[in-house]
Design a protein that fits this description.
Organism: Mystacornis crossleyi
Helix content: 10-25%
CATH topology: Hypothetical upf0131 protein ytfp
Number of strands: 7
Structural class: alpha+beta
CATH architecture: Roll
GO molecular function: gamma-glutamylaminecyclotransferase activity; transferase activity
Order of helices and strands: EHEEEEHEHE
CATH class: Alpha Beta
Enzyme class: lyase
Function: Catalyzes the formation of 5-oxo-L-proline from L-gamma-glutamyl-L-epsilon-lysine.
Catalytic activity: epsilon-(gamma-L-glutamyl)-L-lysine = 5-oxo-L-proline + L-lysine
């Protein structure tokens, strides 16, 4: 099992959460909530209002999201879904645990008690330079007051 931190449309209550609970795509078990230890710019960009975490450590906000344990099948699905490695790149990041529900081995419990876990995160280093000038968010909600609702793939 791998640990994945999601901050955008795959979170509970967001437009693509359905994929996280679709066992035909693999297993994803919600473990808790967290935020990035380092600051990153989270922007909403493009004509489909897609959330992107730009891989610029030290700039932006501590981005909030959810931590999941996923099996290899789900990880492969997420790589494909996120357009990895072209649109997003899957990298390890340090995530501060804010709320923990996970049950696992002693190592996992110890890491959570420590407060910091290493998780795979889909961020991007391949973005148009003008995205750096977009507003930065610390948390994503498709129906947030930014007014930039995500456009589902099937509606594009």
């Amino acid at each position: 099992m791998a640990r994945v931190f999601v901050y955008g449309t795959l979170k509970k209550g967001q437009p693509n959460y359905k994929h996280m609970i679709n066992t035909a795509k693999g297993l994803a078990k919600f473990q808790g909530r967290g935020r990035t230890v380092e600051k990153y710019p989270l922007v909403i960009a493009g004509k489909y209002n897609i959330p992107y975490m730009l891989n610029i450590p030290g700039t932006g906000h501590h981005v909030a999201g959810e931590i999941y344990s996923v099996d290899e099948q789900m990880l492969q699905f997420l790589d494909e879904f996120e357009g990895c490695p072209d649109m997003y790149q899957r990298t390890l990041m340090r995530i501060q645990v804010v709320e923990w529900e996970g049950k696992g081995g002693a190592g996992e419990a110890r890491a959570a008690a420590d407060g910091v876990l290493e998780c795979f995160v889909y961020s991007t280093a391949t973005y148009p330079p003008e995205w750096v000038r977009l507003p930065y968010y610390d948390s994503y909600d498709s129906s947030g007051k930014h007014g930039l609702s995500y456009v589902l793939r099937e509606s594009r």
